[in-house]
User: Fold this.
Amino acid sequence: MKGFEVLASALSRSADHCYAVPGYPVTELSAMAKAEPVIAEKVALEYALGDSIMGKRAAVIMKNVGLNNGADLLVQATTQGLAGGVVIVAGDDPMAAGSTNAMDSRYFGELAQTPVLEPDPEVCSASVEEAFSVSESFSRIVILRVTPQLVFGEAVATAVPRTPGEGKVADPRLTMKGRVDQADSYLPGMFAWSARSRLNRMKGGVAGVGAAEGDSRIVTVYPPPPGLAGFTRINEIGRPFVAEHLAVVPPAAIPPPQTSESRGFYRTFCRNCPFIPVFDIMKRKGIQAIADAGCSILALNPPYRIAGASYGLGSAIGVAARSTHVALIGDYALLHSGLQSLIDVYEKRLSLLCIVLENRCMGMTGGQEAPSPCKYIRWADPLVVRASATEQLEELITIPEEPVTLIVQGTCPEGRHHETVEY
Assistant:
């Protein structure tokens, strides 16, 4: 069988959902895996994270440069955590045969501190299942790097049973610094996994990475397994990533994750925030949202706790469309990078209430002026309501069967600042 056929078969067993932005060398793989086409890699990753929150596994197939578009989600997911496994199948093109450059996606593993596997033809099937299992063990996205040599070459198909695990979305009591420390606490385990993984086959002599020739086989390329300095040569397809990372070691000491309680305070919305009626209604109705970056992220904190996760600026719409079906996002975040997700959601008529808080300013960065999103999303037929119109909001804040965009307009008070509440 061809490599893309083996990979597609493995994905059908290991993943509950599969999304793709096709492109060389993974176009055939995307079709064979019956992956759902998505407008952009960032949106596809948002959908996958939404599935993950619901305890489902999701794969996203993309070419190497697609990781540029999805990089923010990849990095954010490491610190914010996930439940069901999420795997990016990244198709690299080292010879730039069908791409604008020869980017090596393995370096994103180092950037995001996430595991990277590069299977060889004998362990394609096992590598897919291991990627999902490892994603759940370390609560972060895993990259499965494939090259044309693997995708279009001959590979061995094996039936590998699912080994389901359960990741963890970051505890809402953790501060952002605490989430970073919590994510770092998994790093020693990642190194131990790489050292003991049976996907690697060490026989000495020349080591081959992925589909590259060699007496020994290296599959867990980040973190790399120990003892590689003793090989006479390490063959790789593309840049010498593994050879450059032989000295990588886990952190020596990691502080206990900081919580709001241990820090002594939490932050919440401004005392006279115009959008308080929205949060009150959501809390009273028991409606949980995916929060965006910006002021919306404060919905994770007391006294509301009406949001369960936040994966970065412009991410709430796509994540919510596959999980809670309610997104809480600011006007600037929508225009910054949320529009692609909104377009895909409307094209697919997914169930989503997108609540846009329009205060015409960048509330977390100094209050700089932001444009109104109304004229840019007329195609969505948004409902525009003043934040003080509580009766209308009471009626409109509900989970719809098809996408609804609700723009709530309010003016931030003079001298505004987020309230700090001591424990």
Observations:
- The radius of gyration is 23 Å.
- Residues 264-422 form a domain with the Rossmann fold fold (CATH 3.40.50.970).
- The first helix runs from residue 3 to 14.
